[in-house]
Amino acid sequence: MNYVFGPVSSKRLGQSLGVDLLPSKSCTWNCVYCQLGRTKEYVTERREFFPKEDILAEILETVLSGKKIDWITFVGSGETTLYKGLDWLIAEVKKATEIPVAVITNGSLLSDPEVRRELLRADAVLPSLNAGSAELFERIDRPAPGFTFEKHVEGLRLFRQEYAGKLWVEVMLIAGLNDSEAALNDMAAVLSAIRPDMIHLVLPTRPAPESMADIPGEELVQRAVFILSAAAPVLNPAKGEMNLGSAENLLGTLSGIAYRHPVQERELEAALGKLFDGDATKIREALDSLFASGRFEKVRQGGELYWIVKTS
Q1: Strand partners, 8
Q2: DSSP 3-state assignment of 71?
Q3: Parallel, antiparallel or unpaired: strands 304-309 and 296-301
Q4: What φ, ψ does residue 16 adopt, rounded to 5°?
Q5: Is the N-terminal amide bond of 7 cis, ω within 30° of 0?
Q6: Among 18, 19, 78, 209, which one is most buried in terms of CB atoms within 10 A?
Q7: Would you call 168 helix, strand, or coil by DSSP?
Q8: Tens digit of pLDDT for each residue in 239-283?
Q9: CA–CA separation, 60 vs 97, rounded Å?
Q10: Straight-line distance from the first to the last Cα atom of the chain, in angstroms, rounded to the nearest whole number
Q11: Do 86 and 21 touch, CB atoms closer than 8 A?
């Protein structure tokens, strides 16, 4: 599969089939916490990066395979809505299956009426809001020129007025940056004006390009939940369980997942444990075989080991 990966398990979307629409890394932002690393060159013009018919064929092939899929989730190795023709893909998927469709986006292009229109048929849209002020927006999201905080917030507000589906705004909480009482109150005020159905609070647990992307302590997380819940219900940070499917194509499955985001080694071990009924010998053999393929390297972040796909 070139465009489809997973299903990946998460608390937010259950067993989520990921659909990657972009070459890595194509983005309007250069976030300090991005699991894909730094944005080497901003991409701001929308286009059909890959043939939409090829992407659709992979989605339908996976759906017909009988795998358990709770959501079909359009994501990107960068900013998802840079893919022009997203509305066609959403419409065709919804013709073929009753599985709901989600779109994960940073929301930076929602000020464009065409982008807002293309997302209207999605069952859930998950844009980002990581700051309640222009100063913090520039420090955390580091957008391309012209992508201002005011433009970002206005795009989210306009989309909420037009969109009847589930609007779940994602807030990345970073220690020492946006976890102070003042920063959280600013965010709560902006979120109240946007009126999302839910706020998804997430933490920078995966390897990040900047050392400043630290995980806040539990007390600060709970304070964030309390303050932000004045704007909408808050979903606490939580990890789902990885599902590797079957033992037949472990290398391909893991490669597809790790290419899009780093995989925690103990999460991988737990997934292999479920696959091999807790057989420690088979788990260790599988781990050794996967790493011996030469496709992965290990990095340490926050005291945890992660597997990532080698870039060279």
Answers
A1: 16
A2: strand
A3: antiparallel
A4: -105, 120
A5: yes
A6: 19
A7: strand
A8: 556 677 777 788 888 887 887 667 878 888 988 998 888 889 989
A9: 9
A10: 20
A11: yes
Instruction: Give 84: exposed, middle or buried? Use CB within 10 Å, 0-12, 13-18, 19+.
Output: middle
Q: Cα–Cα distance between 239 and 131 in angstroms, integer?
A: 23
Percentage above 70 pLDDT, the chain: 96
Written as six digits, the tokens of 183 are: 């920063």
Return the amino acid letter for 250.
L
Q: Are 103 and 83 in contact (CB under 8 A)?
A: no
pLDDT digits (tens, 9 = 90+) for 79-101: 999 999 999 999 999 999 999 99
Distance separating alpha carbons of residues 167 and 123, to the nearest angstrom: 9
**What's the token pair of residue 16?**
């989520």
- CA separation for the pair 279, 153 (Å, rounded): 51
* Cα radius of gyration rounded to whole Å, the chain: 19
Q: How many helices (H) and strands (E) does the chain have?
A: 10, 11
